[in-house]
Amino acid sequence: MEIPEKLLKPYSPSKTEGRIYELWEESGYFNPDNLPARHNEPFSIVLPPPNATGTLHIGGAIMTVIEDIMVRYKRMQGFKTLWLPGTDHAAIATNSKVEKIMQKEESKSRHDIGREAFVARVEKFVEENRGALKHQISRMGASLDWSREAFTFDEKRNVGVRTAFKRMYDAGLIYRGNRIVNWDPKGQTTISDDEIVYEERTARLYTFKYSKDFPIAISTTRPETKVGDTAVAVHPDDERYKQYVGKEYDLEFAGAKLHIKIVADEAVDPEFGTGALGVTPAHSQIDADIATRHKLPTIQVINEFAKMTDAAGPLIAGQKVLHAHEMVEDWLWGKGLLQPEDIKDIKQNIATAERTGGVIEPLPKLQWFVNVNKTIPERGDKTLKELMQDAVKVGGIKFLPERFENVYFNWINNLRDWCISRQIWYGHRIPVWYKGDELYVGVEAPEGGDWTQDDDTLDTWFSSGLWTFSTLGWPEETPDLKLYHPTDVLETGYDLIFFWVARMILMSQFLVGEVPFKTVYLHGLVRNDKGEKISKSLGGNVDPIEIADTWGTDALRMALIVGVGPGSDSKLSNEKLKAYKNFANKLWNMARFVMEHEASNAKFKTQNSKLIQELDEIVKDVTLDMDNYRFYLAAEKIYAFTWHEFADIYIEEAKKTGDPEKFCALHFAFCDLLKLLHPFMPFITEEIWQTMRGGKTILMIEEWPV
RNA sequence: GGGCGGUUAGCUCAGUUGGUAGAGCAUUGUCUUGACGUGACAAGGGUCAGAGGUUCGAAUCCUCUACCGCCCACCA
Predict the structure, then answer these.
(1) Cβ(A421)–Cβ(A368) under 8 Å?
(2) Quick count: other Cβ atoms within 10 Å of Cβ A18?
């Protein structure tokens, strides 16, 4: 056989990859509707939608690669394989990113340009980014069905979100309530419990009495909030304070008039500080809980701008929280209520907002919530919490690695009602309209004038939670939805268990009445040579496209996969990339050798060939690994066999003996090895296949060897 | 305060149900052999964190300890 010119030179990814991806796209086989008839049984994965804010980072690359491996494997096995792409509008992330850009470039805030102009601006930004993102995902070799591409904020998904809201509202699972929320003064919005990042800081713990006459000393790190106190709580068994429980005191503290009741509550730790807790119901979740139990009044003394309200009293009203802190401290010194020994440094976890870094200020606010503890008659009187537990306990969802199931259950046990309304502008507007005292909830705006829609938008995870079925056409009963839902595998990073995996289970269990997926494969974080976290926010950015340019996409894929089991963090090093780049070239030369020595006329008996016997073993072994999601092992095994058995032993042997039967066996085995390798190194294997077969068939849909 | 993960060759990591340790890279030596020097052959290198236990036998199971890392939690 004549050897093409290109095989005489080293393998060139840059001259190959674009052309091969086009070949695949033109074949139409990314779309399961176009697959040959043997592809019957469905297999589906939805791509975790990358944020439309930016470029593909290394975490997005590993996600893409793992899923592409699964999908290519299943497609070759004959499944009607759908891998559905999309992007996430990532409401809060995008909103704050555009705000940052505007602040930096024009020193303007979103309030300066108004809602409409701001949203238009964000949409423009998103449109520019989405195209780039698609290109980058394709560069990884992703065999995604682009004809079904979705966006969490497109019209169809919008209908899905409004429908979900309406159905949950009608079922009493969504309610509007005045409760303590996590307020981010910097981002000017509420955030959910999961969007809080705790930072350890040293804080000063002050111990003092409200006034000379008050019998009990309290401890606090935030004296300025004490103007909002309505009680002092002690442990019921605390002998020191038993005589005071039930008594009430009127006093003046830092210019504010307080009415303090002494209450006994189990939540108080008698060992901490003085064992007495000044209860500030408006600005602490635990205090709010105590206040509810003891029917205490709530006084809001801090506003949305982290300034003291008028209720804080004339001394500090209008002051910023930090300044008020100093003023109250000064007041305490001046009144002789504080001595140097009353101030201690303690370690404290301070709550900050994930996106803006702003210090969270708990505030009472009228917001929308998802009730996770309400029983649902149409779902067997279970609560959302229980439905989420059932999905894993009896619904058959398996986590990989299994240990994350405990993490999941632990999260559910601690779950409170989910605050879903946000005061940012970019996102799904809450489908609620008001007219006077009337309230209307609907998929579309109510008929007639005078209705005003709720200003708030929904938590971005509300729409992400619908992703497995909103992408398939829900709420319509589409053929796609019937065929591909529940999806087979959900593959994502373990850091998204709470944000996303749990929310998808919640939404699917209630809205569709089934689990959203059967297996959850969780990948770890990719770190650099030094073991540091590679992330956009921390700098030290590693661009997967740059790596693919330098080493070839196939080498990058192998480097990301080999030796990296689910759930474990990994390191990406140049040594590893080099090793697999070399492997690609080795494979290239094997192809040349096999083609040069093709002995198509020779007869050979496979049962007599040791190579073929060993090949059978490796096929069985690798197939078992693939079925059990051990891609890191499968890849390594094929690599080792191809190089160190097939090439080092069998090619050398054939060279020495010149036996035509041996060359024939080589040819046969090499074709199977290309198939085994294809999910991992799709570009070079397809390129070799095309060269050997003269473009007659396409490796992507060849049958997986058995 | 709970929970989880890690600790195996210089480096990065495998080791699926327990049977006297493996890979890649790195190091050293040999090979200017027409598939490939991005190669081949070969060599060196580990008391599998420590202690105890179960077992005929443990890197692998159990207990404890140490260090590193992560997650969760309403100690104000």
Answers:
(1) yes
(2) 13
Q: What is the pTM of this model?
A: 0.94
Q: A569: Cβ under 7 Å from strand B? A: yes
pLDDT averaged per 10 residues in sequence order, chain A, 706 residues = 82 94 97 96 97 85 94 97 96 90 93 94 92 92 97 96 98 95 94 90 91 93 95 92 94 94 92 92 93 94 95 95 95 93 89 91 95 95 95 91 89 93 96 95 92 96 97 97 97 92 97 96 77 50 85 93 83 85 93 82 65 89 90 90 90 86 89 95 96 92 95
Nearest residue for B39, CA–C1': A586
A25 CB neighbours strand B below 7 A: no
User: Tell me: the pLDDT tens digits for A233-254?
Assistant: 999 999 999 999 999 999 999 9
Closest residue by Cα to residue A99 from A87, A81, A111, A89:
A111
- Protein CA at A665 to nucleotide C1' at B34, angstroms: 22
A410 CB less than 7 Å from any atom of strand B: yes
A368 touches strand B (CB under 7 A): no
Query: Of A52, A103, A96, which Cα lies nearest the Cα of A355?
Result: A96
Which strand B nucleotides have any atom less than 7 A from protein CB atoms?
2-6, 11-16, 23-26, 35-36, 38-41, 71-76
Strand B lies under 7 A from the Cβ of residue A230: no
Strand B proximity: list residues 493-532 of A with CB under 7 Å. Answer: 495, 498, 531
A648 touches strand B (CB under 7 A): yes
The interface pTM score, or ipTM, of the predicted complex is: 0.92
* Nucleic strand B within 7 A of Cβ A357: no
Task: Return contacts of A250-253, CB within 8 angstroms, 24+ apart.
Answer: A251/A210, A251/A211, A251/A213, A251/A214, A252/A211, A253/A210, A253/A211, A253/A226, A253/A227, A253/A229
Distance CA A99, CA A95 (A): 6
Output DSSP code: residue A189: E
As a whole number of angstroms, the distance between CA A321 and CA A645 comes to: 71
Q: Which two tokens stand for residue A329?
A: 């401290």
Is strand B in 7 Å reach of the CB of A198? yes
Which ranges constitute the DSSP H helices of A107-213? 110-113, 115-139, 155-170
Q: Residue A236 CB closer than 7 angstroms to strand B?
A: no
Nucleotide nearest to A571 (CA to C1'): B12
Q: The tokens of A636 are what? A: 């390594």
* DSSP annotation of A340: G
> What phi-psi label fits residue A53: left (phi over 0), alpha (psi between -120 and 50 degrees) or beta?
alpha
CA A594, CA A590: separation in Å to the nearest integer?
A: 6
For A530-550, b/e burial (b = at least 16 CB within 10 A) is eeeebbeeeeeeeebbebbee
